Amino acid sequence: MNEKFGFGPDDNEGSSSGEPSDSSQKEPSFNFDIDAILQELKKLGIETPEIPDQMRDQLNSLASMAENLMSSGNMDLASLPIEAVREIARKTLAKSGELPVGDQDLKAMKVAIEIADHWVDQESIFPRTEIDPAASHGASSRSDWINFSIQGWQSFITPFLEGLSAALSKVFDQFSEGESVGLNQINPPKLMAGFMATMIRTQLGQSIGKFATTVTSANDVAIPLSDKGAVFLIPENVRAWGVDLGVDQREIEIFLALRESAAARLFTHTPWLSEYLQKLLTQYGQGISIDVESMQSRAEEAIASGEIDISNPESMQSAITEGIFTPEESDLQKSALNQLELILALIEGWIDLVVEKSAGERLPALLKLQETQRRRRATQSPTQQLFASLVGLEVSPKTIRECAKFWREISELVSLKERDQLWEDPFALPTADEIADPKIFLSGRQVPDDLSNL
Q1: pTM metric for this prediction
Q2: What pLDDT is attached to residue 163?
Q3: By CB count within 10 A, which of 145, 185, 288, 420 is most buried?
Q4: Rounded-to-integer distance, Cα 387 and Cα 379, Å
Q5: Using CA atoms, how far apart are residues 204 and 188, in angstroms rounded to an integer?
């Protein structure tokens, strides 16, 4: 958790009936000036550091954005305006550019998906995904993927933000009990709200824009991002994925289409999965707490040791990234992260197995393609990057390998139908302890033929 600011909605905003307040009652605007604030602090006997011009400009710039947000009333940390995030994602993508989907691309991608669907039909009981009339099929652009996925990203981020917002609001409630320092007309909770709202939507929008340059298909990220049935490849990114592999382009397209077909079927026929992932993120978010004294103590120690140089903005950013200000995780949070890692690994492991079984010996370069996918997943996975930046979770390659092995052994012990029926409910899936021994896992879930002695 890089964010260290917090706030809650101002209880005085609007009337008691919930209607907008009269414009004459709006809080006056303020001109944020870091030098003026430092002077006020010095008057109170608080020692302040010398701030370099670069950092001073950055602080004043952020404050200006925060003021704009406050004047628009859009400063709730737990509220993530989807259009604002979409616009940032588009601007980020524009820096890399994109190519339109041509007729040849559309034809090639559709052929690859048709072949993949036919092969996967034999290796999963989940039927082909029913395509939503409003969704793309076959091939789509990078921009199309942003529009397809953005609401899903928002839904996964929101539970975490709600927990962070609640935790930081408590901090400001504590501060509000003391006397005001009278820094002109500045309202600290609202100012921090502006900072956080700006920072989070910018970070999320930029991440989605960057993801759009690497994902190869609608469901490449291996989490359910949309409730609309969609199966498509992104031709530009598919070509980039296979650069310098020395593998026939048609093989690459079919391999990636196999992953897309398997993932789309799994997500379409497990409607509980999205809600389950959000529940785990909610559980993590509710456990967020902030010990200001502890954070201050760690900061002072880091400054004294030279680990942080307050005159160097890059040093401050590095300290935040490395977790110097990150609160200790509770047992509840650790449990949520463990469950989150397991379900993500089970998804990836199942997709890997279905692709492997579906391809059989029909793709000569299958081993090379699988290894490329594993390396890419370890270094460029959007899901990995998102959860790593939010909650510090990184699904280990070892866990994914263990889950793929679990599905492979389960397939040898039970029928295809029984294997895929394990996805009917989260409680039907294995725990972390059961992954290592599929036989014991099955014995605990099978009903004895003779129930007379029970």
Answers
A1: 0.77
A2: 78
A3: 145
A4: 13
A5: 24
C-alpha torsion sign, points 28, 31, 33, 39: negative
Predicted pLDDT of residue 26: 40
Q: Please, what sign has the CA dihedral across residues 260, 262, 263, 265?
A: positive
Residues across the chain: 454
103-138, pLDDT tens digit by residue?
999 999 999 999 999 999 999 999 998 876 666 679
**Tokens standing for 354?**
């279905």
Which residues fall within 8 angstroms of residue 442, CB to CB, at 6 or more apart? 410, 413, 414
Report which secondary-structure segment, H or E, holds 257: helix 249-268
User: Which of the four pLDDT bands, split at 50, 70 and 90, describes residue 162?
Assistant: confident
Question: At residue 345, does pLDDT exceed 90?
Answer: yes
CA distance 319 to 168: 20
Q: Are strands 231-233 and 137-139 parallel, antiparallel or unpaired?
A: parallel
Amino acid code (one letter) for 68:
N
Residues 6+ away with beta carbon under 8 Å from 123 = 354, 357, 358, 416
- Tokens for 313? 């903005």
Three-class SS of residue 33? coil
| Rg of the chain on CA atoms, in Å | 25
Candidates 229, 234, 266, 230; CA nearest to 252 is 234
